[in-house]
Amino acid sequence: MCGIAGVISRQPIDMIHVKKMNDKLIHRGPDSYGYLCSRETINKEAVDRLDQLDHFSNTHLVFAHRRLAILDLSEAGHQPMSYLDKYWLIFNGEIYNFIELRTELEKKGYTFHTQTDTEVVLAAYDFWGEDCLNKFNGDWALALIDKENQTILISRDRFGIKPLYYFSTPGLFLFASEIKAILEHPAVNREPNLHYLYQYIKHGPNEYDRETAFKNIFHFDFASYFSGPIKNLLEPNKINIKRFWSLTPNLSNETLDEKKLASYSEEYYSLLEDAVKIRLRADVKVGANLSGGLDSSSIVYLINSVKQNAAFSIPLETFSSVYQSPGTLDCDESSSINEMIKQLNITSHQTEPRPEDIPQEHRKMIYHMDSPPESTLMSSWYTAKLINQKNTRVTMTGEGADEQLAGYLRYLTYYFSNMRFRHTLSSYKIFKTISGARVYIRVGLMMNAIQKILGKRVTQYLYTKTGRKEKIFTPPNEKLKEDIQSNLLNLHHIDEAVFMAFSIEHRAPFMDHRLVEFLASVPIAYKLAKGRTKYLARKAFDNLLPASINWNKDKLGWPIPERFWLENHLKEWVNKTIKNSEFLKEQRFFAIKNLDKISHTVKIRLLNIAVWHEIFLNSSPT
Q: Is the peptide bond before 373 cis (omega within 30 degrees of 0)?
């Protein structure tokens, strides 16, 4: 886990500008830094730890890197890293199967001088070329130069877990792990992307499409790469970004078979266990987030099991945000957290946000997010802060399970709208007992019934007329795939930005591509079954987790008591911040004269825009 930045230009590059870009990433890599530049770069004396490249034809280049040391903590892990006197690489992320790849490459004659995954990436590229991307099991954003052929490979991992942004204009290409680094370059004008912000007010954040909250700064596509002559990056019409991986879901409408369920459950457990095992590879302390729900509890159980079987010397520590103050108890999951801790006999660290601290912490959070998020994120923020205080450098999360195992109640709408009509009544009777599920089920039942009379096309048209844009007859497994490639990236962005704000690497075992591909192949009947969401996962952990957690029908999802805070302790701060925002007044995003009539969701979004604009466009971020 690190921070990367780069400048490619037709004109000589001023090293002072690149240093400013790299300094903005210091929280991503406080352990060391380094630069690689073409010989014609000016103001080289502005930095140390500088390597030089021979001249590229009509092209100037600087790479910058900030290192958070996780593997091979020695100087050998320094980046930019060279290999075979042919390649240079800057790399953010982890390749969790690097040991297996290194063994495979050693059999092919390659030698290694470090214990890093970075060196394995370089050797893998030398042997497989751009096809090496499909060999990697991990999360990454990288830029790799072949100096002999004057080509470059830029890539981002399958699920967009690691961020990568770019700015492109004729004669100049900039990229970085965070937008704030790109904003430091003098060629970039700090301008809000009004179209993005209007959509944010209506629908929430969007970290999966190309646009960002800043005009002319873009996301590099997930599961994608650019490979070609370096000079092509200086001509926007020649930047051809290609996809290297895609997901194919099983759209079968088959019914549950108990023998297949047992087989699926066994394979699910085995894959998740190995995903956890390889994500424990680190030369620093690894902890885990524990919310008290099924997903994080499963990860904590497996970490503890792997550690005990492998006789790890450092016991597992977990980290949680809890809410035990008056008015916030409906968001508290400490009873489930404590039940897991008691069963496994492990250490639990817990924290509770104080409302009086939130305005200050919220501002810091917005700065590190780079774009307005969906909420105040205080549960995530305070958990990350706690992990940092306990000197833990890596944490594992349960992110990604709901989007693969149909954990959200909204998936019941698609399940019932696509169900054979003769099964709807019996299914309704068993699923209606899930807390909050009836409203989603009834929409699906209604659409299913209407389409029997009017057909799917007319029914979809009528559904759209109610103000909803979803394609209601999308098969549930197809909807899961869509969410993995859209909404889930918003959650990845939260984890990445929040934990890196405190120089912490987060790892998500549920996003192991082997597990993702397996679960996509499992029919929906094994995910939504017998009145339970995520049935396959619950079956796999039956009698391993406390029953109150494993078979719980009330999903909280790491909630934040924002409504209570905003109606009490923080009401004056929120209203004042929104009303005093000249940007909100000018753009007329919303009628903000009477804030009491605005929904809680929209109010939070307006607050986030106001603070975001004040930080990035009205003053110098701090």
A: no
Query: Given this model, what pLDDT does residue 621 score?
Result: 45
CA atoms within 13 A on the CB side of 321: 19
- Predicted confidence (pLDDT) per residue in 88-103, tens digit: 999 999 999 999 999 9
pLDDT given at position 15 = 97
67: Cβ contacts below 8 Å, ≥ 6 apart? 2, 29, 31, 32, 33, 34, 77, 78, 79
Question: Phi, psi (5° rounding) for residue 335?
Answer: -65, -40
- Number of Cβ within 10 Å of residue 45's Cβ equals 9
Q: What's the distance, CA 289 to chain centroid?
A: 15
What type of residue is 246?
S
Q: What is the pTM of this model?
A: 0.96
492 contacts 159 by C-beta, under 8 angstroms: yes
Measured on CA atoms in the order 112, 113, 115, 117, is the torsion positive or negative? negative
Please report the domains of the chain, with CATH numbers, ordered by start residue: 2-243 (3.60.20.10), 258-404+481-550 (3.40.50.620), 419-467 (no CATH), 570-616 (no CATH)
How far is residue 369 from each of residues 17, 32, 316, 517, measured CA to CA in Å? 22, 23, 29, 29
Confirm if 116 and 76 have CB atoms less than 8 A apart: yes
